[in-house]
Amino acid sequence: MNKLKKVDKFIINLSQTSCKVKVYTTLFCKKEFSSSEIQELLNIPTTKVYEILHQLINKSFYAEKNLAL
Q: pLDDT for 2-51, tens place per residue?
């Protein structure tokens, strides 16, 4: 339950930034992604993908081991 509250709080704190929401929800689709896969799927700049992924990793919402960088 505590993790669910943490996820809810994170989504609310995303400030409705569509790129962040898109990346975050896309990560639920499969176990591993490369940054280029995410960029191609969402049509957002690679630099933005890296920025968002690092934010998610720093907040413990995604594990770096799941990235195929």
A: 666 677 667 666 555 678 888 888 888 877 888 889 999 989 898 988 89
Give the ranges where the chain is alpha helix by DSSP (H): 2-13, 18-26, 35-42, 46-58
Q: Calculate helix-pair angle for 18-26, 46-58, nearest 10 degrees.
A: 70
Q: How many domains does the chain have?
A: 1
Structural domain including 61 reads: 2-66
3-state secondary structure of 64: helix
> Tokens 């890296």 — which residue?
50
